[in-house]
Amino acid sequence: MALSQKDLQAIAILMDSKLDPIKTEIVELKEGITGLKTEITGMQTEITGLKTEIAGMQTEITGLKTEITGLKTEITGIKTEIAGMQTEITGIKTEITGLKKEIVGIKVELSKKADKKDIEYLKNQIRKSERLLLDEVERVHEILDMHIKDTTRHTA
After folding, report:
1. How many angstroms separate the CA atoms of 47 and 53, rounded?
2. Could you write out the DSSP letters of every residue in 43-70?
3. Cα(148)–Cα(102) distance, rounded to whole angstroms?
4. Is the Cα torsion angle 41, 47, 51, 54 positive or negative in sign?
5. How far apart are CA 149 and CA 123, in angstroms?
6. Which of 140, 134, 129, 148 lies closest to 88, judged by CA?
7. How far apart are CA 2 and CA 8, in angstroms?
8. Which residue, 42, 103, 116, 134, shows the most beta carbons closer than 10 Å to its own?
């Protein structure tokens, strides 16, 4: 039995009616795939941007670590300087104590055997020596104060 032209047309119409929803669905799926591809491309661009930003942050962190290391070294040097100054101050204090004892001894000696002119001369010399010592102590204190107040050396 052969199919007539009418039968073939009816089959074709029936098939078209069944295929039309499938064709529509295929078009919709293709549009969906295109949208997903666009989203994926956008996400890949964002990921590339984030990777670049992370690399920049890592470089910045490395720079900060280097700077911190330098500051630690500088602080260690400053601590060493301060320790040296403290040792110097201790030595000066010891010298001052010795000179005071010497001055007391000279005063005692002078009161026993010198006349008034000699005593006045020696007293003046002692006063000069005391002023020089006090000036030296003051200079050391000023150096220490300047060092402590020097904020350019203490940047940590």
Report:
1. 10
2. HHHHHHHHHHHHHHHHHHHHHHHHHHHH
3. 34
4. positive
5. 38
6. 140
7. 10
8. 103
Amino acid, single-letter form, for residue 52: T
Q: Which two tokens stand for residue 68?
A: 């911190």
Among candidates 63, 134, 150, which has minimal Cα distance to 100? 134
Q: Could you read off the pLDDT of 62-102 as tens digits, one per residue?
A: 999 999 999 999 999 999 988 988 998 898 889 889 888 88
Tokens of 133: 């010592």
Return d(Cα 140, Cα 123) in angstroms, integer: 26
Helix residue spans in the chain (DSSP H):
5-113, 116-149
Beta carbons of 82 and 108 less than 8 angstroms apart: no
Q: Is the overall model pTM greater than 0.85, yes or no?
A: no
Lookup: tokens for 56: 């920049």
